[in-house]
Amino acid sequence: MNRRSFAILCAASPLAAMLPAQTAPPSPPSSAPAPAAGNQPPRSTPAPYKAVVPPTPGDLSVWPRGVSPDVVGKALAEHFLTGAQAERFSGYPYVCTFYGAMIFAELTHDDALRDRLIAKFDPMLPGGTGRTPQRHHVDDSIFGVMPLQIAIQTKGLATYDPKYLQLGVSWADRQWGPLADNTPPELPQDLHDALVKDGLSPETRLWVDDMYMLTMLQLEAYRATGDRKYLDRDAHEMVVYLDRLQQPNGLFYHAPDVKYFWGRGDGWFAAGMAEMLRTLPANHPDRRRIMAGYKLMMAVLLKYQGADGMWRELIDHPEAWPESSSSAMFSFALITGVKHGWLDAATYAPAARRAWIAVVGYVDQNNDVTQVCTGTGKLDSMQYYLDRKRETGNLHGQAPVLWAATALLRDEK
User: Fold this and answer.
1) CA distance 148 to 324
2) C-beta pairs of 376-382 under 8 Å, 24+ apart in sequence
3) Fewer CB within 10 Å, N side or C side of the chain?
4) pLDDT, tens digit, for every residue of 21-30?
């Protein structure tokens, strides 16, 4: 057990939410000569370890030692930049981690971190030496989030370059264009054609994962340009997925033909709804439907949160193993809802707090998130999900811990 895990385990006691007080500062140096050997004064006794009880059980600002979002977020962002994880582009998990690190840099006013992240991205610009995705597929198209976030954060700076916005927008526009010949639709052709006719992206496949992969690109395009078309088609896409995948209990099947509540799959949708609602105007015609789906899901998540603060690989199976990436995603969604006032703080903030503390306990001494479900396609088999490999340092886990940290740091008032 690493030191952080031990600290978090201690924090899970009835004094769970306690933060250590600062020890007394050392006395200023004295100009008096040191006493002769043999006449040393007795050594002072260090101040005892003290803790401060947070104002409320659901406080989201006072944390045990080693759990504060600024410390955890900085550690994971630096690890992403300097570790093997960032050496080469590895697909959508890389994008999600990059996005989380960029938001963390913005919220903490860490311009040096932001600039290092941009420098890490630059080889992936057209004509560069970095690897970039090629498929006309939600898992590849999310690539556009990176240049769009760079454009958003550098707008108005002397270093602003329109090439980032142009690149990001090209990916967002392509997502609503015809599929390339080498990327056939994943749905039956008749269903694919009907959904596209209804205004959905040709990349639509009705997997629960899409509600982060697809929606984030369009949201970032709207945030960067202010063009309402990106937001409107994005919200419509989410409503269709809500109608087709959300069940009466509030959870989501992995796909219409795979009727299991896979943890990270539902986590993608939870995080996607929270991001959507952060941006969607109060008078948008689809906001009411999305908010209803979000609140229904958040309510049932309280029921399935374990005593340890975590959620399971299969959410409704308490015998399944606690999974860190989904728990971090649910933490992000709950924190965001509480801070915006969508969720009752007295009911939901304690669950959000327990989740964050629990998730940080899975970050090891190398700043790798442990117990992360490996990349997972859909399969109509319960055992398939229960037997998924558990990995350490997988970016599927690093990314949502960064998101949750930023949700705690973000001032939503």
Assistant:
1) 28
2) 376/262, 376/264, 376/265, 378/207, 378/254, 378/255, 378/257, 378/258, 379/258, 380/257, 380/258, 380/259, 382/260, 382/314
3) C
4) 333 344 444 4
Q: How far is residue 204's CA from residue 221's CA, in Å, rounded to a whole number?
A: 18
Kind of pairing, strands 51-52 and 372-373?
unpaired
Contact of 261 with 315, CB cutoff 8 Å: yes
In the chain, % helix, strand, coil (3-state, to 5) comes to 55, 5, 45
Segment (H or E) for 373: strand 372-373
Query: What are the helix and strand counts (H, E) for the chain?
Result: 16, 4
Cα–chain center distance at 281: 22
Task: Please name every residue paired with 355 in a beta bridge, in sequence order, or none if there are none.
Answer: none
pLDDT, averaged per 10 consecutive residues of the chain (413 residues), comes to: 49 38 42 49 54 75 93 97 81 97 98 97 90 89 98 96 97 93 88 96 97 97 98 98 98 97 98 98 98 98 97 97 98 98 96 97 97 96 96 96 98 72
> Residue with structure tokens 């200023």?
28
pLDDT for 307-356, tens place per residue?
A: 999 999 999 999 999 999 999 999 999 999 999 999 999 999 999 999 99
Q: Is 143:133 a contact under the CB 8 Å cutoff?
A: yes
Looking at the DSSP bridge assignments, the partners of residue 246 are 252
Q: Please enumerate in sequence order all residues whose Cβ is within 8 A of that of 39, keeping only pairs 6 or more positions apart, or say none.
A: none
Helices (H), 43-161: 69-82, 92-107, 111-121, 138-141, 145-154
Q: How far apart are CA 285 and CA 169, in angstroms?
A: 24
Cα(first)–Cα(last) distance of the chain, in Å? 38
Cβ–Cβ under 8 Å, residues 311 and 333:
no
122 closest CA partner among 132, 107, 113, 112: 132
Torsion of CA 335, 342, 264, 362, to 10 degrees: 10
| Cβ atoms of residues 74 and 104 within 8 Å | yes
Query: How many other C-beta atoms can be found within 10 angstroms of the C-beta atom of residue 25?
Result: 7
Residue 240: phi and psi, rounded to 5, are -60, -45
Distance CA(362)–CA(370), nearest Å, equals 5
Return d(Cα 92, Cα 396) in angstroms, integer.
9
- Pair 305, 298: CB distance under 8 Å: no
- Which residues, 6 or more positions from 181, have their beta carbon under 8 angstroms from its beta carbon? none
